[in-house]
Amino acid sequence: MKAVIFAGGVGTRLWPLSRKKSPKQFEKIIGDKSTLQLATERLLPEFAAEDIYISTGKPYVHLVEEQLPFIPKENIISEPAKRDVGPAVGLIMGHLAQKFPNEPVVILWSDHLVNKTELFKKIIFESGEQIKKQNDQVIFIGQKPRFASENLGWIHIGKKAFSSEGIGFNEFDGFKYRPDAETSKTYFDSKQYCWNLGYFVTSPAFMYSLFKMYAPQVYEVTERIVTSANPADFARQMDAYYPEMPEISFDNAVLEHMDKAQATVVVEDIGWSDIGAWEALKEALEEHRHDNITKGQVMLEDSADCLVYNYEDKKIIVGVDLDDLLVVNTNDALLVAKKSSVTKIKNIVNNFQGTENEHLT
User: Model's pTM, two decimal places?
Assistant: First the structure.
């Protein structure tokens, strides 16, 4: 079985820690390891290093090699231009379809937490066994929702299809991307929906065939790249043709068009959290909502429901009577915001473009 971890995003919502030169997945947000390192280590030792692939942007190859020196260099697929997730998935599926067309592959992301690692791996491998039996399908892995999130995608769960080795497989009834507050509460209360993690198990040949059917422009450009006979040709073809890819999300390119009968869903509590934004990181680490989450030299008095991260060793942050705040201090920028205002961070960083603060992006 193969695994692909996508590590190409910039992560503006985790500014000022996450920057273009070193996005969130390469930073030490939790403990002393990056989320990319944590995501990769979750697969070991059941996955051999040569069975793990990393998809990233060309500027970040050196970071991947530094943080994951055990991953073969030929397994690091670097895109020379940003073209959204659709082309990135199409490329890696086309590449793997050349070598392992019908072998199960799991798609994962580098900026998530999964606390129940053993259950997570059991789901992956049992889904892989199902793909071996029927390789023209997609098995989505969903998280039982903990609350009515407006910031995540949701999967509509159909009736129970079958069970295998204690893992239940349900019919797939469709997606909804970031529903409004009222709709997300309805989904949560119905118990007929789960959070869409973007994790799935399939075969490269089948997924690549869906690109051929529903996203022909992505497929045609990918074909010109992946038919290269050796690594040097592959790299040259990538530089030459990848910029011609359309900018399109994976959902728009493929998932919204595929036949629902070709997919099933596994829904479990795997202790998953998306830590792509500061308020999501706090939710992932807290035991109770009123807890304070801190890192570095921080002292809080009569404060609650705050995340305070200090990345300067020679400075202490002291907070008094704080509530519902995000405070993140780096050596060149300080963020102070309400948790509910985190979506505005991206706009502020985008407004730095073309100004004297552009170096902070």
Answer: 0.90
